[in-house]
User: Fold this.
Amino acid sequence: MGKKGAQVSTIENLYFIGFIFIIGLGGLIVSQDFSQRARILPQIVSGLLISLAIIEIWNSWKFMQKQDKQIDKNEATKLRINVLSGTILAILVYPAFLYFLGFIVSSMIIIAFLMYMREIRSIVKIGIFSVLTPSLVYILFNTLAGVKLPEGPWGF
Amino acid sequence: MDFSLWERAFSVIVQPQTIFWLLISSVIGYITGALPGMGAALTISLLIPITYYLDPAVALIIMGTIFTVCVYAGSLSAILLNVPGTAGSAATCMDGYMMAQKGEALTALGISTGASFLGSIGSTILLIIGAQILLKPMLALGPAEYFWITVLGLTIIASLSSTGLVKGVIGACLGLLLSFIGQELITGTYRYTFGTLYLIDGIELVAVIIGFFGISEVISMMTSKQTSISKVGKLSGSVWQGILIPIKRLLITVKSFIIGFVVGVMPGVGYSISTWLAYDEARRTSKEPDKFGQGSIDGVIAPEVSNNATVGGSLLPTLLLGIPGSDTAAVVLAGMIAHGIMPGPQLFSQRADLVYTFYLGLLIAGFLIVILGLAVLPFAAKVTIMPLGVVAPIVLVLCFAGALSITVDIKDTIVVGLIGLLAYVMKRLGYPIVTVVLGFVLGPIMEENMNRALLSVGGSINGLFINKLSWVFIALVLLSLGQHIYRQLMDSKKVRGVKV
Assistant:
């Protein structure tokens, strides 16, 4: 990673550390309501998390001072932002699909969508993998492991 | 040693029905071990009702075979997909997956096969002949010692982080906080449940493992510029070559074996810790510690020998005292009791034939690891040269199916998805996600033992320091932290020296 890439990463790290700080603070505040014995470790861990977050903010701040102030905006695009957004969207909507459409149909849709996102354009390939994989996994879990995967309105 | 007992055990094993179940259970163990979220405990518990109709000896063989093969097969998905099939394979991801990325998946899988074989056979032999010697000192450990062992486990893993101790400890703390969600067992207090019923039982370990390793890997695969897991796009080496490597590197194999077995004997600790301790020991004593995390052979041998050695170790207190050494051993114990087999010293005097049949079954399961490995792995390794656009969606579906296998509650898949997103961000920023998982695993063990230690002296903090043996572990914790800080100081001095 170059200097500018490191700068972007440091800013991202600062956001994340802010999140960690809030988690630690929240953990500490909420733990006040626990019984005395139940709050010992949560309070120690939350306190440690806050302290470490402060140290990490200091480390990142020091690191940023050494770097250029300019941020290369192209750096962000290196992440393949469209694919990343599509994948995150798929992960977030998959549970809803499972609930309404059942395991097989929702998995077919998700596989086809993700394959398309990764620039696989062959209809045959997409068709084969999106039909075969959920069917095999369904049979494997239902019959072998006895795990009843969600069924859609069609009964599978 | 009574050889007539071995003869009787052998006569049971050669029965067609026994051979049939031995093969079936090894295949089931292989598949479920490789599937993220399944694991030995779940598989055995699902098969216990089927074994009701079988002879108790056959039932024991089925449970032992699944336990052994499942623990080994967890490395298959760990090496090929960076998704550990079981918690005991998480450490294997570190170097196994890196080897797969270099096109050395076959060798890595072979190493895992050879190491698991040695760990399995060795631990069974030790279980048979000399383990009683180890049992006494293990029972001398009290809750305070166990508390410090968990702290030691966490500090070791945090110090393994190549991006610094602070990031490692932040990960461990995050894992601990996640483990506190739900009802606290001693006081019954609801912690961090925010009034929701779903969180009362806490977050499932399987959800955490799948989210942190599986989902985050799917996102990485999707956004990667590579076309396949293997950066070179082809496979080199062979399974057979890999199988022989743990034998050639005997010192690391023996050390990892001892760690795995001894930790296995400690009730309730299991391979979640033993694999990491073995990994750290291998790295600490290696001539090339920098290669760890970059595809080191020793980094695959250590956890793989250790996790299968833990199987035999954890069965020792299960058989002798009825105290399970791990969660899977607890399920085996439940299965034994369901068949009317009561563990304890009387089992060895009254039903020694069953014990010896069980031993023989475990030994055969060890050989089945190699047979299955040679038969299946050359084909399985091809996953690493398949296009990522095909592999990533399949892994995502497997992850969600694994998450659903916990309670068949769709909320579990939401948790898995959110954890996966958090893990991806952490990975991208250089936070070691393994420390989060280990913090989550060790949190309940740490808290339970801390509370027990405090209660033993009327709630005083002195309970954690009162035993002399505790100080040995405290010293090890300090040593582990000190060693890491010293190494960092030396590294920064070197950098300054170069700049000057």
Summary: Chain A has a mean pLDDT of 84. Residues 7 and 61 of chain A are 10 Å apart (CA to CA).
